[in-house]
Design brief:
Blueprint (H helix, E strand, L loop, with lengths): L14 H4 L2 H7 L9 E8 L4 E3 L7 E3 L4 H11 L3 E7 L18 H13 L4 E6 L12 E3 L2 E3 H17 L4 E4 L6 H11 L6 E8 L6 H7 L2 H4 L15 H12 L4 E5 L5 H11 L3 E5 L1 H12 L5 H15 L3 E4 L2 H8 L2
Helix pairs in contact: 3-4, 5-6, 9-10, 10-12
This protein binds ligand PBG and magnesium ion.
Catalytic activity: 2 5-aminolevulinate = porphobilinogen + 2 H2O + H(+)
Protein name: Delta-aminolevulinic acid dehydratase
Keywords: Heme biosynthesis, Lyase, Magnesium, Metal-binding, Porphyrin biosynthesis
Length: 334
């Protein structure tokens, strides 16, 4: 055998198209755009900003800062924000009554944001009781159990007050069975037929939510309890498909998989199975993991952020809820 070898040469060399930037761009299968981003924001009833220890770089925004953040989202071209309230502990109760107060923090702030930016920005609000309950659970607790149907009776009222405040998208994140159909019916009856429902359809009982619970202050309320009787076990894949099928049949306009990066297989299955608008939530723990490593100098920030978000697109997601939304929008705008 002579050297260098003359034949046979590999007919197919995948490196050929990788050799030039123009050619890599030409064969690109998926890409991330600012249109794919949803920016989650934490708001508290006060002024200024509050750092969140377990979410470096993310702050709770006071009512005097939140409208500016919404304007910033518009300027960056981000299509939508998701608002989460850090409720004053004094307003939390066993029945989470503050959730259905039409002048609660999130409703007031939504009205202000919509007044300022109108239809230039979509506002998404969670439907679940955990920011308002003294036990930190997403539903009502009776004899130590999170009860399903009684909870839904409250959730539908929460959805209505939020829609009345001007919220564009209701996002039930509670994982009660059957709530999408009931909320859809209630919205339609109250003349909010145009308000969308983005269902957290496949939401897992995950350890990656820790920093979020610090941010909204539900960690202390929840204590050592967990949400395993309603959120899915991380071992489940077929069950996620079943969940999504039910929520779509009940009227969900779009569905979400949560967390994101450890569940890209679920994102891919959901998109391939149903072909509907599918979102993924790169949750607080995923953000903290990346941010922490970047801040320690172990990972290169911009590259890792963009790679992590592109991976959602490759899996089939139509959009990503991410605390990196403003960073990504800035990087994409270059
Ligand atoms: N309804 C609760 C809710 N809505 C969004 C998140 C987590 C988001 C994140 O971790 O970034 C959670 C946490 C939970 O289920 O305990
Ligand atoms: Mg369900």
């Amino acid at each position: 055998m002579s050297y260098p070898p003359r034949a046979p040469f590999p007919a197919t060399r995948l490196r050929r198209v990788r050799a030039h930037d123009w050619s890599r761009r030409l064969v690109r299968e998926c890409s991330l755009s600012v249109d794919d981003l949803i920016w989650p924001l934490f708001v508290f009833d006060g002024h200024g900003t509050e750092a969140i220890k377990s979410l470096p770089g993310v702050s709770r925004l006071g009512t005097d800062h939140i409208v500016d953040a919404a304007r910033r989202a518009v300027d960056l071209g981000i299509p939508a924000i998701a608002l989460f309230p850090a409720t004053d502990p004094k307003l939390k109760s066993d029945d989470a009554a503050e959730a259905i107060n039409e002048n609660n923090l999130v409703c007031r702030v939504t009205r202000e944001i919509k007044r300022a930016v109108g239809d230039q920005l979509g506002v998404i609000l969670d439907v679940a009781l955990d920011p308002y309950s003294s036990h930190g659970q997403d539903g009502l607790v009776r004899d130590g159990r999170v009860v399903n149907d009684e909870t839904i009776a409250v959730l539908l009222q929460q959805a209505i007050v939020q829609a009345r405040a001007g919220c564009d998208v209701i996002a039930p994140s509670d994982m009660m069975d059957g709530r999408i159909g009931v909320i859809r019916g209630a919205l339609d009856e109250a003349d909010f037929g145009d308000v969308q429902i983005m269902s957290y359809a496949a939401k897992y009982a995950s350890a990656f939510y820790g920093p979020f619970r610090d941010a909204v202050g539900s960690a202390a309320n929840l204590g050592a309890a967990d949400k395993k009787t309603y959120q899915q076990s991380p071992s489940q894949s077929d069950e996620a498909i079943h969940e999504v099928a039910l929520d779509l049949a009940e009227g969900a306009d779009s569905v979400m998989v949560k967390p994101g990066m450890p569940y890209l297989d679920i994102v891919a299955r959901v998109k391939q199975t149903f072909g509907v608008p599918t979102f993924a939530y790169q949750v607080s723990g995923e953000y903290a993991m990346i941010r922490g490593a970047v801040d320690a100098g172990w990972l290169s920030g911009d590259a890792v952020i963009m790679e992590s978000l592109l991976a959602f697109k490759r899996a089939g997601a139509d959009g990503v809820l991410t605390y990196f939304a403003p960073d990504a929008a800035r990087l994409l705008g270059r």
